[in-house]
C-alpha cells in the first residue's frame, strides 16, 4: 500500500484520571475498513542529562510501582499544561535533585510508547550544575547519586538500567563525549 495513514472518524475520552487520560477512536484504515484505536493521552515529559564538571552524571534511584522495583534513571518529569519544555526541565532538575543548570542544550525528542500513547519526551543536556536543596513533590521519594558514563553503559549492558529514556540518554552522552554526535 502506498498510503499508510489511518483517519479518525470519531472518538471519545473513556478515562479521565489525575495523571492519564485514555482515548478510544474509530478510524478508517488505508483499505477503507474501520477499526478502533485506544491510546493514552499524555502532555509530554522532559528528561535531563545532568553532566557535572568532573564528567560524572547525576542520576536517580526511584521505586516505580507498576513494575514493583527500583530503577536507575535520569531526572525527568511531566510537562505541565502550557509549560515550555525547557522551563519544565529546569524545574524538574531542581525539584528532584536540588541542582540548577547553568548551560542547557536540547538533545532530541523521543516517543517511548508509540503503539499506545501520544507521549513524547524531550531530552536536555544540563551543564554548569550548582548544588542546592531538593524540592520533592508530596509522595515523591528518590535518591540521587553520581556515576560515570562508562558505568552507565556497563549497567545498560548488564540490564541494571532498563528504562528506555535512560538507555537512550546514556547512548547520547557516550556519542557526545566521543565527539561522534554534535548538538545544534
UniProtKB/TrEMBL annotation:
Transmembrane segments: none annotated. Belongs to the Nudix hydrolase family. NudK subfamily. Its cofactor is Mg(2+). It comes from the Bacteria. Coiled coil: none annotated. Gene3D superfamilies: Nucleoside Triphosphate Pyrophosphohydrolase. Keywords: Hydrolase. One of its GO terms (molecular function) is hydrolase activity. This is GDP-mannose pyrophosphatase. It catalyses: GDP-alpha-D-mannose + H2O = alpha-D-mannose 1-phosphate + GMP + 2 H(+). It comes from Duganella aceris. Residues 38-169 form the Nudix hydrolase domain.
Amino acid at each position: 500500500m502506498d498510503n499508510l495513514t489511518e483517519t479518525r472518524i470519531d472518538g471519545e475520552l473513556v478515562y479521565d484520571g489525575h495523571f492519564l487520560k485514555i482515548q478510544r477512536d474509530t478510524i478508517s484504515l488505508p483499505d477503507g475498513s474501520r477499526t478502533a484505536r485506544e491510546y493514552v493521552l499524555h502532555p509530554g515529559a522532559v528528561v535531563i542529562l545532568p553532566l557535572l564538571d568532573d564528567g560524572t552524571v547525576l542520576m536517580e534511584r526511584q521505586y516505580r510501582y507498576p513494575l514493583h522495583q527500583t530503577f536507575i534513571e535520569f531526572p525527568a518529569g511531566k510537562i505541565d499544561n502550557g509549560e515550555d519544555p525547557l522551563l519544565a526541565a529546569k524545574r524538574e532538575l531542581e525539584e528532584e535533585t536540588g541542582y540548577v543548570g547553568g548551560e542547557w542544550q536540547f538533545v532530541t525528542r523521543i516517543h517511548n510508547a508509540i503503539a499506545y500513547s501520544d507521549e513524547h519526551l524531550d531530552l536536555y543536556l544540563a551543564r554548569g550544575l550548582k548544588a542546592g536543596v531538593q524540592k520533592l513533590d508530596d509522595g515523591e521519594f528518590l535518591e540521587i547519586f553520581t556515576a560515570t558514563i562508562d558505568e552507565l553503559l556497563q549497567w545498560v549492558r548488564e540490564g541494571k538500567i532498563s528504562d528506555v529514556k535512560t538507555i537512550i540518554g546514556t547512548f547520547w552522552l557516550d556519542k557526545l563525549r566521543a565527539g561522534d554526535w554534535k548538538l545544534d
